[in-house]
Amino acid sequence: MTDDLDRQRVEELIGAEAAGGGSLRSRQRLGLLVAVGLAVLTLVEYVIAVTVDDPLIWLLPFVIAKGALIMEYFMHFSSLFGGGEH
Amino acid sequence: MALTVEAAHARAEAVYQPRANRLGLWIFFASETFLFAAVISARFVTSGTDKPDDLNQALALGLTVVLLVSSVSAYLAESSIAADDRRGFMAYTRVTFVLGLVFLGAVMFEWREALEHFPPETIYGSSFFALVGLHAFHVLTGVLALAVLLILGPRGHFGAQNSWPVEGVVKYWHFVDLMWVVIYPTLYLF
Questions:
Q1: For residues A67 and A60, what is the distance between their CA atoms, to the nearest angstrom?
Q2: pLDDT tens figures, B54-83
Q3: What mean pLDDT, rounded, does chain B reach?
Q4: Architecture of domain B16-43+54-189 in this structure
Q5: Residues of A in contact with B11 (CB under 8 A)
Q6: Is A24 in Cβ contact with B174 (below 8 Å)?
Q7: Mind telling me how many Å the CA of B136 is from chain A's nearest CA?
Q8: Element of type H or E holding A53
Q9: I need a labelling partner for B143 at 20 to 30 A (CA). Which of A3, B3, B18, B98 fits?
Q10: Domain assignments of chain A as residue spans, ordered by start
Q11: Of B64, B42, B141, the residue nearest B110 (C-alpha)
Q12: What is the maximum span of chain B, computed from C-alpha positions, in angstroms?
């Protein structure tokens, strides 16, 4: 019985770590902040694309920044290496 | 003593199994990334950064917004189940599922337009349909996985102690979003 509870607790902690750690409210706040960041980057990306000729070089940093935000905050990439506390 | 050894095994399994699952999923993402990279590089090899003037930029921006919002709702679904909030999990999963369907519907609409302006026989058209088609197929499989979560969720299959299936599906959904983050400028903006 004690072992089952112990295992359940470990599984809960692992699940919470996978979701980024912290309380539900703080995770929700973080998710919305990341969403705002992604929206702003997408908007800037669009504006650059319609105003600059041959915008490839100008857009690359924005693509990388958006990808990094998704990988780190939504996919919790660093938790793969034992981190993951956001 | 035997009980202690069993407890140690149970604890080790509880700690290492999810990490092994995650590592396996990331290896799968790496292999998928190679597939997308091959088709993306084909677009630049065949037509450089040229793109037709008939591209529906407003619709593409709309598709991007829909997918980014669906990623946020998927993240909130995962956070909810990790906190054992099953109602929140079901609500956010439903939103993600609907946004996935909206994305697929919009892609079908876009294809109807694209077939008139740059059919698959053209150089740009071949890259466009291959890349958007490959991505839409991944969205479709993601939507099917979300449907499984929606069917099993109310039956109590997921909770704070069993959140791996949700985590796996949600991470896959984010991966599909991540690929679109690269595909969108590749086809519409560069």
A1: 11
A2: 888 889 899 999 999 999 999 999 999 998
A3: 90
A4: Up-down Bundle (1.20)
A5: 6-7, 10
A6: no
A7: 19
A8: none
A9: B18
A10: 2-81
A11: B64
A12: 74
